[in-house]
Write a structure and sequence with these properties.
The chain is an alpha+beta fold. A hairpin with a 2-residue loop joins strand 1 and strand 2. The longest helix has 15 residues.
């Protein structure tokens, strides 16, 4: 496990452009898990489900004609 001093040293050596990203990560880690909301709700149906089939190494859109040369 990393020590606080080592973490502080590592943060001090980070490029300024990445500081905002680190700040957002720290804020996210501070949030309790109960307040985190899912991006997709299990109540909502998946609109793309069943629209593509997998055939060996090809993916084919269902119901659409397509040309392999395109």
């Amino acid at each position: 496990m990393i020590s606080r001093e080592q973490l502080k040293h590592d943060i001090d050596s980070v490029n300024e452009a990445h500081i905002e990203t680190l700040h957002r990560i720290i804020l996210a880690l501070k949030q309790p898990l109960s307040s985190v909301t899912s991006v997709t709700s299990p109540k909502e149906p998946n609109p793309l489900k069943g629209s593509v089939i997998f055939e060996q190494d090809l993916m084919t859109p269902i119901g659409d004609s397509w040309n392999v040369e395109q």
